[in-house]
Amino acid sequence: MLKSLTRAVSVAARLSTKAPAARVAEALVRPALCVPSSASTRPFTRSIWMLCSSNGATSDSRPKLLTTKRVLPSVPCGCGGLHTEGDKAFGEFLSDEIKEEKKIQKSKTLPKMSGGWELELNGTEAKLVRLISGEKVTVTFNINNSIPPTMEEEPQQGQKAEEEPDIVSTPNFIIEVTKQGAKNALVFDCNFPEDEIGRGEGEEESDIFAIREVSFQPEGDGDWKETSYTLNTDSLDWALYDHLMDFLADRGVDNTFADELVELSTALEHQEYIKFLEDLSSFVKCH
Fold first, then answer.
1. How far apart are CA 226 and CA 215, in angstroms?
2. Global confidence as pTM
3. Does the pLDDT at position 238 exceed 80?
């Protein structure tokens, strides 16, 4: 009888010591899963807390941390598309960027070319056409990838930081000369060498554009046929090269023309850039 009473007392003592420990363990586990920390809590931690509370977890139920639904910060919109807080910030940035670009835009209209050139535009492609004594001269260029990369150098000690250079568009361009009765057009592939773009006043006059290749091609054909012989000017005799440059100058393609082409291309590129920003802003804001 005494042994049975002693066994009952010891069992009761063990049960009384386990209950507080279990409650302490439960109290330690629950805050670690569902209770948010201070104001320095990261958004991910806050989203975990929202998931815990949104699943109807009570003090007696276990929080469900895993769910098939992904919670995204969004802004309501009638278009049915996804709009996040990041999109809102992106749209505000684009609005400011458009305002700044319009401030520095020199003119909303494109500059005109002298010499009787007619301008035709097709998106980012521009075509200049001139008729002279039975010949047709066509100059075609595209403003895409026409801005050379700028090499920014950090100022040394004691030197002032240089002002940012103006953005200038210097596209490659194709000159096509056609004559009545000729089977093919004489086509010149030209570019602006980097060492000639920054030519300043007082420096020796030189050609600011260069001929890279010359070939006979079908008139009006946009693709350069590789089956036609192409003359590369890298190893060309200088006398022949000078005659080719004079041939173009007699038809109005000289340094004056090249300067005006750069001005036109720069204005067109800036105009298209602003239009792209406006389209991007409308796409992001869903307007």
1. 10
2. 0.68
3. yes
Highest-confidence segment of 25-34, 60-69, 82-91: 82-91
What φ, ψ does residue 154 adopt, rounded to 5°?
-70, 135
Q: How far apart are CA 56 and CA 62, in angstroms?
A: 10
pLDDT in tens, 96-131: 999 999 999 988 899 999 999 999 999 999 999 999
Mean confidence (pLDDT) of the chain: 77
Q: Which residue has the higher pLDDT, 81 or 232?
A: 232
Sheet (strand 173-179) strand order: 118-122, 125-132, 135-142, 173-179, 185-191, 210-217, 230-232
Nearest CA to 270 among 151, 97, 114, 139?
97
**Among the listed residues 117, 70, 61, the one whose alpha carbon sits nearest the alpha carbon of residue 261:** 117
pLDDT value of residue 285: 87
